[in-house]
Write a structure and sequence with these properties.
The chain is mainly beta and 339 residues long. It folds into 3 domains: 2-128, Macroglobulin (MG2) domain (Immunoglobulin-like, Sandwich); 133-210, Macroglobulin (MG2) domain (Immunoglobulin-like, Sandwich); 218-337, Immunoglobulin-like (Sandwich). It is built from 2 helices and 24 strands. Strands 17, 19, 20, 21, 23 and 24 form a 6-stranded mixed sheet that branches. It has a 5-stranded mixed sheet with strand order 3-9-8-5-6, with no helix packed on it. A 4-stranded antiparallel sheet has the order 1-2-4-7, with helices on one face. It starts with a helix and ends in an 8-residue tail after the last strand.
Length: 339
């Protein structure tokens, strides 16, 4: 009979223990309760006298005593077993968290007792501080330094429905960082820590990342239409190609200025300043003979010098600005005249 009663109790959703004692008149006292007693939560304890043939009511005192000294009753209740309830009864007890250490790594116990008129049943039971669950959400998973972090908390306890009304659930919320601060000028991984104030032994955490925004990197290649600028050339073209490091073409604008290097000093051609559209990674800049002669009326003076081009590329979304420099020589004659 005992095994069938225990199975029925387990089917009610309990992981429980049964503790019984056979008396001299062949009646059996039974104490059944969860394997874990949660603090700040009403727990149900079952007591029974089996095979009891007398008519007298049986008072039973149920207690939770501090472990290991048994010097303090942490919770108590009483039930009366009689013929009407088939000598079975349920008692409700609630253990307060204030009676225990706040050390989250320490296992803590109580003595659970059922005092029958002639017998005391007693069991050591582990205490659980899991009085509920806290779910934490943030509006993003990655944040920039100094940005605002929006978060919300859902808390559930065994006796309450899902709720966003944080105050009556009595929680503490803290923010901490995990990563070594010397690896960066600011912590990279942060976490929000929430706990029920009455059960600080159990914490609930949510981690998020904080990092600086790094502009996409790209490279610019300058390819001249000719390796030299000849004094009788009409123009000089430069092909501009801009590609992100991950292979996608850059759309944006190139700011171009040509000039000449003579005796180690650079002198620009002011009329050569131009703004070039970069579409699908490509653009073309052009230096004309007239732009040179606006600064050097006798273009032959430049033979033996170097012409340079300075290019700065700004992406379409203003994500990055890069400057590049290229130079090539000035020759007296076109190449085909030397053939």
């Amino acid at each position: 009979m005992e095994s069938s009663r225990t199975m029925s109790w387990t089917q009610l959703g309990f992981n429980s223990f049964d503790f019984s004692f056979m008396s001299a008149c062949f009646s059996r006292e039974v104490l059944s309760a969860p394997n874990l007693l949660r603090v700040e939560t009403t727990e149900i304890v079952f007591v029974e006298v089996q095979d009891y043939v007398q008519e007298n009511a049986i008072p039973v005192q149920i207690k939770a005593m501090n472990y290991p000294t048994k010097t303090k009753a942490l919770a108590s209740t009483s039930v009366t077993l009689n013929r009407e309830n088939n000598f079975q009864g349920f008692g409700k007890i609630q253990i307060e968290a204030t009676d225990f250490s706040k050390d989250p790594n320490r296992k803590q116990y109580v003595y659970l007792q059922a005092q029958f008129p002639n017998k005391l049943l007693e069991k050591i039971v582990l205490v659980s501080f899991q009085s509920g669950y806290i779910f934490i959400q943030t509006d993003k998973s990655i944040y920039l330094p100094n940005s605002k972090i929006m978060y919300r908390i859902f808390a559930v306890s065994p006796v309450t429905a899902l709720s966003t009304s944080v105050p009556h659930l009595d929680m503490d919320v803290q923010t901490k960082y995990l990563q070594n601060i010397f690896q960066s000028i600011f912590p990279k991984i942060w976490k929000i820590v929430a706990k029920f104030r009455k059960t600080p032994q159990v914490s609930f955490t949510f981690e998020f990342e904080v990092k600086e925004y790094v502009l996409p990197s790209f490279e610019v290649t300058l390819t001249p239409g000719s390796p030299f600028f000849y004094v009788d050339s009409e123009d000089l073209t430069v092909n501009i190609k801009a590609i992100y490091n991950f292979g996608e073409a850059v759309d944006g604008t190139a700011y171009v200025l040509f000039g000449v290097v003579q005796d180690g000093r650079k002198k620009s051609f002011p009329d050569s300043l131009q703004k070039i559209k970069i579409l699908e990674g490509d653009g073309v800049a052009r230096l004309t003979r007239e732009q040179i002669t606006q600064t050097f009326s006798n273009i032959a003076e430049l033979v033996g010098s170097s012409i340079f081009v300075a290019v700065s590329v700004l992406t379409k979304n203003d994500e990055g600005l890069k400057s590049f420099f290229f130079k090539w020589g000035v020759s007296e004659w076109k190449r085909d005249r030397h053939l």
